[in-house]
Amino acid sequence: MTVESVRDPINGVEFKSSDSSSITNGASLAETFDTFLTLLTTQLQYQDPLDPMDTNEFTSQLVEFTSVEQAISTNQKLDSLIALQNGMQLNDAVNYIGKTVGADGIILMLQDGGAKVTYDLGANAAETNILIIDEEGNTVRTIEGDNEVGHHEITWDGLDDDGEPLEDGLYGFLVTSIDSDGNPVPLIQGTEGEVTGVKVVNGEVVLEIGELEIAMSDVLTIEK
Fold first, then answer.
1. Cβ atoms of residues 89 and 178 within 8 Å
2. Are residues 163 and 178 in the same domain?
3. Is the pTM for the entire model greater than 0.70?
4. pLDDT tens digit string along 148-186?
5. What is the sign, positive or negative, of the torsion defined by CA atoms of 65, 71, 77, 83?
6. Of 63, 94, 125, which residue sits at a domain end?
């Protein structure tokens, strides 16, 4: 953050020039504050006795410097707390490695020739299908699902509609379900997989299932 000149010069001395160094930490702030006090003392020493500097003006400047110093200190403490919290969450997340987790989503990881799709039907259906979609948007496999209300798990064997094995990697999937009148049945779809790693992305701990990343906050089930 570069401090630009926001005040008119006082007795010919600028409050802070626009080409000055940035205030990035407590040390630089202290140096800037020392310079400010030197300028202020010089101004007081050479001010016109018949036109003295407004005391409210430099008092306000002192208060502003103090507020900035406190804000920087607060930000540094918050950064430390966030780093500590992320470290603790990351350590906890390591325990997920090797376990199977489930989460809502539309992406699954075909791993070692298999992947598991989960879905919950809000009512009995007449027809349910799971569409597996490749990265080009093509439906490569259509799997017939269970139609009863409740939770269901379907394992995809990694084969396409022609019975040919597909490469491991990320695939999209879509669960469609209709009743006897052709109306959509409410549902929630998700996927499961074995956690292979953990990492922090944008300050949030995520679990890795191969190439698939799942935020800790999105995890719904955990199995040994």
1. no
2. yes
3. no
4. 999 999 999 999 999 999 999 999 999 999 999 999 999
5. negative
6. 94
